[in-house]
Amino acid sequence: MRKYNLAAFCFLFLLTSCTISNENSEPTSEMELSESESLAKDQTSNSLTYEVGEAYENVTFDQPLHFTSAYDDSNKVFIVERTGKIYVMDNQPDVTTKEVFVDLSNKISTNGNEMGLLGLAFHPDFKQNGYYYVNYTTQEETVISRFKADLKSYETDLNSETIFMTFPQPYTNHNGGHLAFGFDGYLYIGTGDGGGSGDPQNNAQDITEIHGKLLRIDVDKKTDESEYSIPEDNPYEGNSENYREEIFAYGFRNPWKFSFDPQKEELWLADVGQNVLEEINLVESGKNYGWRLKEGTKEYIPDNSTNDQTLEDPVWVYDHSQGQSITGGYIYNGSEIPSLKGAYIYGDFISGRVWALKKSEDGQIKNKELLDTDLIISSFGLDENGELVIVDFNGKLYKLIEKE
Fold it and tell me: Where is the Glucose/Sorbosone dehydrogenase domain positioned along the sequence (predicted)?
């Protein structure tokens, strides 16, 4: 039986509180699954050859949501706690101490259990400029801001904050929260649909609204109006229809982690489902990924004014017999687990399952369950060497180990 602390249970409940069936969507049966969905079920019978072990036995965290590196040749790692702190520590298995990198507890609100400090991204030139970016919620809104760290002490002056973007949150859930720099040097920001059951305001399909989107901004060029500018090749840059120019792609419910494949320069995004399917998308500029018209590959609330051929299907889905809240991961290119080289490693927050998905050159997808854990998988992360870490919302960090 899985064990959850109270905070984990509350976060889990809100993350999946809209998975109750409703009149617009019925539980799926195996007969209704597409070919790729059936393959997902078949793959779970494969023999398991992996286990998890503690990555850093001597340290624990309070509701951790993210693990990352600054890629500054320091071999340090950073852990984001939903409750407001970011810690830095040496990337050594026997590390015994962690230091506060920044404490934003007094700036954020955690009154809703999907609220808090949700994301962290280091500027590609962090080693020179000390800039990093965070995504957090106040009582009323989401804030995207930049801080400057002292590169010698790894401490942050809270007065260095520059706010880049704010937008209101109509509900406390579906805040998205992840942000990351792409290979193009632009900052990508995942936003949830604003919350509520079934996207009641249809935000994800409304390109005049910022919710339910993947945003893309240039943080290195400010304008007279804002601290950032719009990349010239953003799909709605310079439009006269009041579309949000920050939008890179849209039609998402609650994107919970996205990442970039360094070899193929593809953008992988996991979107938490409503009550039937969890999905993985390969995201391209200007495309519509379906929510709330569709949940994964299935119709949700159709709109006759939208041509289904304009909607992008996910590259992979799994139903709620496998898990109920997808946690996106990373393409693995480390050296410790050669058998997973080039695979997209992802998991499920509720079931604790971990999978490896591979896409061949001709686009064929193969998915394999690696193991079924008791972890509450809130995130995955990579260290400076490209080695994978699994973040357990209960407070520990783990790594995958291949059995002999």
Answer: 62-375
| Count: domains in the chain | 1
pLDDT digits (tens, 9 = 90+) for 321-368: 999 999 999 999 999 999 999 999 999 999 999 999 999 999 899 999
Cβ count within 10 A of residue 95: 16
Q: Are 151 and 134 in contact (CB under 8 A)?
A: no
Whether residue 22 lies inside any domain: the answer is no
Domain, as residue range, for 326: 31-402
Mean pLDDT of 370-390: 98
3-state class percentages of the chain: helix first, strand second, coil last, to nearest 5:
10, 35, 55
Q: Give the DSSP letter of residue 140.
A: S
Indicate whether 106 belongs to any domain. yes
Tell me, yes or no, whether 376 lies in a domain. yes
Q: What is the pTM of this model?
A: 0.91
Tokens for 79, please give them: 């852990």
The C-alpha atoms of residue 328 and residue 343 are separated, in whole angstroms, by: 13
User: Which residues fall within 8 angstroms of residue 264, CB to CB, at 6 or more apart?
Assistant: none
CATH of the domain at 74: 2.120.10.30
**C-alpha dist (Å) from residue 371 to 17, 41, 57, 143, 352:** 25, 14, 21, 36, 8
Residue 210 placed within a domain = yes
DSSP 56-96: STT---SSEEEEEE--SSS-EEEEEETTSEEEEEES-TT--
Q: Which of 263, 271, 276 is nearest to 326 (CA)?
A: 271
